[in-house]
Design a protein that fits this description.
Blueprint: H1 8-13, H2 19-71, E1 87-89, E2 91-92, E3 95-96, E4 100-101, E5 105-108, E6 117-122, E7 132-133, E8 138-139, E9 144-146, E10 158-162, E11 168-176, E12 183-186, E13 198-199, E14 204-209, E15 212-218, E16 223-230, E17 235-243, E18 245-254, E19 268-270, H3 285-289, E20 291-301, E21 316-320, E22 327-331, E23 345-353, H4 355-358
Length: about 350
């Protein structure tokens, strides 16, 4: 069988791709690759932006939910409303500790728009009981107190002694309660702790239990801290429970009407101590009794810088102007942070009624 070689004409047709064909194919491939990379980059930037905003929303929601829950407990079991504002004199062993004002909510306004600090005070007892009363005068320095009821009291509880007209309220630690008696044994108060030498029959004895004193603040790492006060060591202990939170803003709502009649209502919001009863003294006991609610704004930001440019605007919240009392959109200062405009922000707000002050003992 003879083998036939192809003609020269046929050989030229089956030589394959030329350099021109390869260059055209390579150019098309590069263009396709560039398009794919561009789409991938845009998709990733959009994904990061969406995820960052969602994380910021979640962090703010979690922080606000926990704050709201704890704020609703403010003032629980602090006794008659007349006691609010008294100066709590306290000791740790024989050491005299700094005074506390008996304020259910303490708002420390941040300087120049810095994050606020919020402190919440309530009784450590699970159930709020009516304050007991002295059935015999109590001499300051004694270690025995006679009361009309020891219901709910146990060893280790902290009792607050309040007498009408006396601005100082000693905090007393129970050491023993004899069974079947109306006596309370406690650690004697050091001499000179109080201006008064005795508290008369009828003075209120308020059982604060282990005392719940909580503090909320934002640290340098943009974490919202919740700290609890340990009365046995005089130390604050706690940890961060929400990350990427850059600001906490709050205002207290007062019923600032000259005459309180009918249903109570907030007529003025203020972050500073406010003279709600217009008697010339801001933050006195009557002003505290007029606090009905708190307005809170939690500001969180995305964990990563935005890939779409540094174009964020200053976040705002609805707050009262301190001078006029009018509600207006108020900027929240986040421009002290490096590259603040390169992140995305979320602001969540809530108005929380202070039910324990509204329903306070009379």
């Amino acid at each position: 069988m003879r083998f036939m070689y192809p003609s020269k004409k046929i050989i030229r047709r089956i030589q394959g791709l030329g350099l021109t064909d390869l260059m055209v194919g390579l150019a098309i491939g590069l263009l396709a690759t560039l398009v794919i990379i561009k789409v991938a980059v845009l998709f990733e930037a959009r994904r990061k932006s969406t995820t960052g905003i969602a994380d910021a929303q979640m962090n703010a929601s979690y922080a606000l939910a926990n704050l709201s829950r704890d704020v609703r407990m403010a003032g629980l079991g602090l006794g008659p409303s007349e006691a609010l504002g008294c100066i709590v004199r306290r000791t740790l062993g024989t050491t005299v500790l700094p005074d506390w004002p008996l304020w259910p909510v303490t708002l420390i306004d941040g300087v120049n728009g810095a994050p606020d600090t919020l402190l919440i005070l309530s009784s450590g007892k699970a159930q709020s009981l009516t304050a007991a009363q002295l059935i015999a005068p109590y001499a300051v320095g004694s270690d025995v107190m006679m009361v009309n009821s020891t219901l709910g009291m146990t060893t280790g509880d902290r009792l607050l002694l309040y007498e009408s007209g006396n601005t100082q309220c000693p905090l007393i630690g129970v050491t023993s309660i004899p069974i079947g008696e109306y006596r309370i044994l406690h650690s004697a108060l050091p001499a000179g702790l109080l201006a008064a030498t005795a508290y008369q029959e009828g003075a209120a004895v308020i059982n604060l239990g282990a005392i719940h004193h909580q503090r909320y603040t934002i640290n340098a790492n943009n974490q919202l801290l919740m700290e609890r006060y340990d009365i046995t060591t005089d130390k604050w202990q706690g940890s961060a429970f929400a990350s990427d939170v850059v600001s906490l803003q709050a205002q207290l709502g007062y019923d600032a009407r000259a005459t309180l009649s009918g249903a109570l209502r907030v007529t003025r919001w203020s972050a500073a101590a406010f003279d709600a009863n217009a008697n010339g003294r801001a933050g006195d006991a009557d002003d505290l009794r007029r606090i009905l609610a708190i307005r809170i704004a939690v500001v969180s930001r995305s964990a990563q810088r935005s890939d779409q440019g540094c174009s964020s605007v200053m976040p705002t919240w609805r707050a009262a102007n301190e001078s006029t009392g009018e509600m207006e959109d108020t900027p929240i200062a986040v421009n002290t942070m490096t590259d603040w405009a390169c992140y995305r922000y979320r602001v969540l707000q809530a108005e929380i009624p202070l039910r324990n002050l509204i329903w306070s003992d009379s």
